[in-house]
Design goal:
This protein has 12 helices and 2 strands, in the order H-H-H-H-H-E-E-H-H-H-H-H-H-H. With about 270 residues, the protein is mainly alpha-helical. A two-stranded antiparallel ribbon has the order 1-2.
């Protein structure tokens, strides 16, 4: 058994973590369509993925003078299709185009400063709320599916060396949820309810674990995740919707970007 565990861990470390993230998101998509009745349908998923892939292929060809294997853009499109909800297909296309464009436009040392998926979601949710929302998808009674997908998420985060970020965010969110319950009278089920939502878990395992936009050290990642949870809690107290997306953007803008710039100057 010990040898089997060692072999499994070696395989996890050797495989490109992006494939594990892709498996995680594909599991979400299939479960949402087959078992959970997610709002998004296959046309929205395909539209988001195709738009992301097409834009990245063209832009990378123009910028870097070569064709690439568009694994990252498939992940981007799939993630957006799961996080966004709209009655029309075009918002999924626009959000994917925004995400890939931001990825190439705002960069430092060859890496994007912001998580492009998060910024694209923030733009759509803030400026086009009549067309784009992010609903707190629930697992209903399908907790076996939830556990299976969470295991995939843990494996993917561990392979990307970002499980500490996920745990720091979940623990901090729970602490601040309790503070909201005790200090601000928020019903306990309402305060802790998001923990059981599919959207929350997508945010934890997909949105804040991007290796290129999270700090390189463990302590910095823990602080980064905790600050996002704190900002999210403050926004929830003021009844701001889509608070997790806004919190991630604000913390990245006010703290993450200056931190990256300071590290860049120190090198």
């Amino acid at each position: 058994m010990e040898l089997l565990e060692q072999a499994l861990m070696m395989w996890i470390y050797r495989i490109d973590p992006r494939y594990l993230v892709l498996l995680f998101l594909c599991s979400f998509a299939v479960a949402g369509q087959v078992f959970l009745g997610f709002f998004q349908k296959w046309d929205a998923i395909l539209a988001a993925v195709i738009a992301a892939v097409a834009v990245e292929l063209v832009v990378n060809r123009i910028v870097n003078k070569k064709w690439i294997y568009p694994l990252s853009s498939v992940i981007t499109g799939l993630g957006i299709s799961l996080l966004l909800s709209s009655h029309q297909v075009w918002p999924y296309v626009v959000t994917s185009i925004l995400a890939i464009s931001i990825k190439y436009m705002i960069r430092l040392q060859g890496k994007h400063l912001f998580n492009p998926n998060n910024v694209a979601m923030v733009v759509m949710l803030f400026f086009l709320p009549q067309y784009a929302v992010s609903t707190p998808k629930q697992w209903t009674n399908s907790y076996e599916i939830m556990v299976f997908i969470l295991i995939l998420g843990i494996i993917a985060a561990h392979a990307a060396k970002r499980l500490d970020t996920v745990m720091a965010f979940i623990i901090s969110f729970s602490v601040f949820a309790y503070v909201r319950h005790i200090g601000f009278g928020e019903p306990i089920l309402f305060a802790f309810g998001p923990l059981l939502g599919a959207s929350f878990q997508l945010f934890c395992f997909f949105m804040i674990t991007d290796p290129k936009t999270t700090p390189p050290t463990r302590m910095a990642r823990v602080i980064f995740a905790s600050l996002i949870a704190l900002t999210d809690a403050m926004m929830r107290i003021h009844e701001i919707t889509n608070s997790t997306f806004y919190a991630a953007f604000v913390v990245t803008l006010l703290i993450g970007v200056p931190y990256r710039l300071l590290r860049h100057r120190a090198q």
